[in-house]
Amino acid sequence: MRQRLIDISCSSTLLLLASPILLVTAVAIWLTDHGPVFYRQTRTGWRGRPFQLVKFRSMEVNHLSPLVVGQVRGTHHMVTPVGRWIRRFKIDELPQLWNVLRGEMSLVGPRPALPVQTAAYTEFQRRRLLVRPGITGWAQVNGNIEIPWAERILLDVWYVDHRSVWLDMKILFRTLAVILLGEKSSERALEEACVYANRSSWRG
Fold first, then answer.
1. What is the pLDDT at residue 73?
2. How many CB atoms lie within 10 A of CB 95?
């Protein structure tokens, strides 16, 4: 309950403070190609419940499967000029504050995966679903797209089993550093997560 109250108060405040950025971004996206401003996609949330994640659209309009498109970086050929900027500074993620207000996400937690990905989870990996997915998380501040998906899951499970208010605060502050300086993998965090997974009876 305490975490939920924090999410509601913080997300509502951030939405208010970020409203000028949200407005400018929406106008910029529409002016460049007159396509939809937002991108919605079904993701798996808390306890395996599906929900519609919302982001600012940063790519050309298409009907390709996310698995076909693959891992998207700012240099991806389908990313729009505006999309490169908003992805670099994580502005495309700001609409997910609405998902937080709705109770589908939290400010901090494992990033919500596609249903096809969660369907293939092992028992150990399903521990990611024991908390609400987050806008940012332990894997995001320790490498994110710079490390393989399997390693991100290890970091997320470590987070789920060690989460606390102080760890969440640490992640939020480190997220600011990622926005300013870019993503960089952390061998120390990954090694700690690997050691924990190997010692855990949940490994499977």
1. 63
2. 23
pTM exceeding 0.85: yes
Angle at 127 (CA atoms; ends 105, 2), nearest 5 degrees:
45
Q: What is the pLDDT of residues 107-131, one digit of tens each?
A: 999 999 999 999 999 999 999 999 9
For the chain, report the end-to-end CA distance as a whole number of angstroms. Answer: 31
Flag whether pLDDT at 74 surpasses 80: no
Q: Are 202 and 123 in contact (CB under 8 A)?
A: yes
Sign of the alpha-carbon dihedral angle for 147, 150, 152, 154: negative
DSSP tag of 103: T
Residue type, 82: V
User: Beta-strand (E) ranges in the chain?
Assistant: 38-44, 50-56, 106-108, 134-136
pLDDT tens-digit readout, 138-184: 999 999 988 999 999 999 999 999 999 999 999 999 999 999 988 88
Tokens read off for 161 = 């089993």
Distance CA 135, CA 112 (A): 9
